[in-house]
Each structure stands twice: as C-alpha cells, then as structure tokens.
Amino acid sequence: MADGKDDPAVFTSASLPSDPRLLATVTNAYLGTRVYRDILHVNGVYNGAVGDTHRADIPSPLNVRMTVPGAESLAETFTLNTRTGTFSHVLQSTDYTATHQIYAHHSLVHLMAFSITIQRSAHTTQPITVQLRTPFAPKSRDLDLNQGPDFQGAHYVYGKTLVPEVEGGPRPTVHMLWTPVPQDLTLRGEERERSWEFLTAVAESEEEVKRSYSKGLALIAVGSLHSSHAHAWTMLWRGCCIDLDGPLPLRQALYGCLYYLLSAIPPRGNLGFLFHGISPGGLSNGTQGEDYWGHIFWDQDTWMFPNILLFYPEAARAILEYRIRMLEGALRNAQEQGYKGAKFPWESAATGREVCPEEIYGAQEIHVTGDVLMAFEQYYCTTQDQKLFREDGGWELVGAVAQYWCSRMVWSEEEQCYHIKGVMPPDEYHYRVDNSAYTNAVAQRSLNFAADVARDFLIPVPEEWVDCAKKVKVPFDAEKKYHPEYDGYSPGEPVKQADVVLLGFPLMHPMSSEVRRNDLEMYEPVTEMDGPAMTWSMFAVGWLELKEVQRAQSQLNKCFSNITEPFKIWVENSDGSGAVNFLTGMGGFLQAVLFGYTGFRITKTSLRFNPAFPDDINKLKVTGVSYFGNKLKFTITKEEIRIKVTESPRDPPASPLEAVLEESGQQFPLREG
What we know:
Blueprint: E1 10-13, E2 25-27, E3 31-34, E4 39-42, E5 46-47, E6 54-55, E7 58-59, E8 65-67, E9 75-81, E10 86-92, E11 96-104, E12 111-120, E13 128-133, E14 143-151, E15 154-161, E16 173-178, E17 184-187, E18 193-203, H1 206-221, H2 225-238, E19 241-245, H3 248-262, H4 298-311, H5 313-325, H6 327-336, H7 359-364, H8 367-383, H9 386-390, H10 394-408, E20 410-412, E21 417-419, H11 437-456, H12 463-471, H13 513-523, H14 535-545, H15 549-558, H16 583-597, E22 601-602, E23 607-608, E24 619-627, E25 630-637, E26 641-647, E27 658-660, E28 667-669
Antiparallel strand pairs: 1-9, 2-3, 3-4, 4-7, 5-6, 8-13, 9-10, 10-11, 11-12, 12-18, 13-17, 14-15, 15-16, 16-18, 19-24, 20-21, 22-23, 24-25, 25-26, 27-28
C-alpha cells in the first residue's frame, strides 16, 4: 500500500493531463483552486449583474511550479492523496528528493498553503537548488485591488467586487495575505533536509485575514500546519466511508467522488462564515464563461445533498441554511412571475434572485423549487431537527413553497384535477409542456411534506394544500402502464437526461414494480447516450430496486466514461464537453452505491435497506451513516447484514433504534457498540 499503487485512495501519475481543466482540485468549504491555476475562488463571492454574475477571480499565490535546472534523469511523479487532501509533485534523483505539496486547509478554511522539502539521499555535500516559477501578479478583473502594508512578512492586498448582482446588492471585500515566493531555494552543503512553508490567507475582513495568517504561522512554527490539515481529513474519513471488496476502478471512483464532494462541505463546529452552497463544478471552477459561472442549481439539493446528509447532517444543515437565507430572493422571483409564495431560481448566487443568463430556464424549469423542499424533507426525516424549522426559518420556507405550488396550479374542469402548465421538465429537450410527470410529482411531495410538518407543529393545515396535493395530475398511461413524461409525450421521443425514472428514486412516488420496470424500459433506449453524467446512476438504482443486478451494472458502467485520468475528475458529458469537476455526476454515482447497492431509503418513520449488488462485489462496508443522532456502520455481504451502532446521541430518544425485518416483522434492538 505504501507506494500508493494498490491504495484506491491515492492517484499517482508520471505526467499531468494535457487539458488543464482536468488537473486535481484543492478546496475547502471557503476557498478553492485547481493546482497550477492562476486564480482561486471564495465561497459566495461573485461579481457581475444578474445573468453575468460569476465567481470573482482572485489571483492565486499557490500557482507555483518547482523545477531543477540542468538536472539529468529525474524521476517525476504527481500524486493526489485523497486520504490527506493533499496534492504533491516529487522530483527524485540518485542524490536527493524534492517534494512540493499543495493543499487547502480543511479545518482552518481561510488558509491555503504549499511547502517545498528537499532531502538528501546520498552522502553528497554540494548545495541543491530548486527553482520556483510563478506568474503571480496581484491583479483581478473582478476586484478593485489595493495594496496594503506588509503583515508579519506577508504581502497584503484587499478590494471590493466591482458590480453587485442586483442594484443595492452586496459587494463583498476580499482581503488576502501571502508569503512572498523567492525564485529559488537551496539546501546548503551541511544540511540533510529542509522544508519551506508558504501561506495564503483569504477572508472578508482585515481582522479575520490577519488572525488566520497568524494562526497559520503559529502552526508552522511548531511544525504542524500540514499535519493539522491531514488530521482533519483523517477525522472526516473516519466519520464516513464507503469501501467494498470489488474491482479497483470502482473503489477508486468511490474515493475520488467522496474526496471532491467532502472537499466542498463545511468542517464540523462553528463555521465563522456563511456557507453559500455547492455549484456543479465546485469552488475550483466558476469563473466567467465556465462551469455555469459557479451558480447553485438543483444539482446541489437533488444530486449532492443526499450523500452529504447520510454522513454529515451538520454540513447538510448548512446547505439548507443557504436556501433559507435566499428565501427573500425566492419570494421576489415568484411575485415577479405573478405567483404567490417562493420560487427558487434555476440558478442561484448571492441573493436568491434568478441569475440564469437564458430566461427560459428561470421561467419554466420550476421543479427546482420542489427539489429544494425535498432536501428539507430528507433532512427532517433523518435528524428530527425541529429547531431548523421552528426557530431558524425552515417553516417559513416550507410554507412559502407550498403556497407557490398552489398558486402555480390551475383547475381542469374537463379532467377534474389540477394542472401545472408551461414548464420545462428535467429533460431540457422539451419546453412549454403541460403536466411534466416529475414536476407535478415533486410539487405533490412538497405539499404533502408541508402538511406533515404543520401537523407535527400543531399548526392548522390550509385546506388548499391538501386539496392540491390530492388532485394534482401526475400523467399515467393506464393502457401501457407507464408514466408519460408530460401531456402528449409519444413513446420513442428522445430525452436529454434522467427524468421520469426519478419518480421511482429519489421521489419514491407510489407505483407497482411493473410500472417501475415499464418506465425504465421506456426511457432507457431513448435517453441521450452522451447526456449529463448523473443519468445512468438513476437507471442503475431503478434496476437494483427490481433486483436486475446485471442491467444495473451495465448502466453504472456507462459512468466510467465520464471519469478522467489520472485524478478522477468527472466531466459532465462523456465527450468531454460541459462542466468539469462535475460534482453532480459524482453525487449521482455515490447515490447509486449508497442508495442502490444498499437499498437505503429515507422514509417518514424509518431508514429502510434492501441490498442488491453485482457478482464481482463480495462485501460492502458503509461507515458513519447518521440517523436520529446515531452513527451506524453497515457491513453487507451476500449472506448477511451487520449493523453496528458506533455512536449514540447524548440525550437518548424516547424510542431506541431497532432493526426490523419487513417480511417476518422480527425486531432487533440496536444499542451502542
């Protein structure tokens, strides 16, 4: 394992990909960059008005390349170690090893750092010099940067973004301190080994940036800056892991997906900053014209969130708090379109107002509002955290979404049910359609959840919510026993991505296994082969539900054409187009294993499981599943399932956990250990 050859969590290569977009990313919840990129981004800091708003480019002091001039026969390796959240570049000769490490500190989120270490291997005494090449210049097209006085040996710039998202909207100030980088570093003749550390601190106030930089210096002084970061990653992995006894490419894919997704979530404990959600390409991407400008879509709530929730409910809560802070913008969106309640934007940034550059999506792809509420529902069912709803704004959001859906429906005298007209379903090849099956089903689910929460809180449930939920049309063809994608859909029409198949999962819309099978059979052959990466994961989950394991596997295998070498960066479309570091696709893939192989389903009263996995997997271990404040470890083989409670809440719930076998009704109480 030591050389990383057989470790599924360590990705090593002798060369870098020719496309710089496919370089590894180093990010935490607040700061992010791609290695060897000249810019970095700060969570929630955007520049530009409405449709032009994008992540503000901040010049990156980390963009440094290490070389040894005139050296012969150097062995060179580039490694992403997902266990320690560290990228390294190693140059090795017979006489010495030079190592360049780059990372975004996981727990001290205002810090990014790199180090250079030179170590002699032979008994030589001549000086060894490495050169550091950096094109860094403290300029930005998105910030009005000013130079401040040096601080503790660091250079200092600060400046405001140039253009607010909406008139009178926020224009944050970014402050940055960084250790100046010399042109070269030399290990002197009498030295065996030496390390040099370079620190970058970024924050939205002078006080915070100086505090963070000083903290970084103090850790460097005691030699524990990198080890404190690596320890934070160790704790992160200890609390959450999916490992299986199966093919190496699958294990590597799982570690890669988890690394890039975990890189984006807030660390445990008090954040000290407002978390602004996760965009499809993460913090390393999202400059103007790239990766959807760093905006937040349903990708976060539908594709990434369930994985985060299952392991780290605190981080999941931070995502929901972002949506709660955007509620005012969502209320304005609905009002501007002539509806009541809250309509979440198709693309969201700093204010919750619609920032999608093309009007059609903001006007028609309204399922996002239901997708947001579904994340709230899953959170409520797995945590029972009533405080989020009673005191922290959750209930206002739930009520406003229910109100929106009621005002968006029109009664059809002819069909005696409610219609939702003129929408774009998740399948973006079609628009201005009536009664999208997915949109209407997610609206129904929003209304049912809103009514459930009201009953739990002893709040009177508006009659309208119950009526609209009961009578909204979800298109169904009784003859062919399948769900048409919308009114007037003809079988065989091409579909861009997973749409109707989402009714089965994650919506868990009631249907027989015959109908579930028919939906899969109907849409699998007509779905775009090179479409977005999360599509095939959802077909896989559907086939696993029906215990059609080989069919599921053939769907999941399609995802591998979206994974690039050597750092397992996902591309949105298998032809390499679209977003890179596509967290949405990774989220779908993780759900296929986390909810597909295990059969986990989050319901109102339980966490259900019903495993099914292919022949080449003998054992699946899922560590750190969170449920009602407990942490559980599932070990699943073809013969048995073991559940271990590894942590219990300090205040035990009224009814302790128990495992129940559905067919026999047999109960097994679960206690810690």
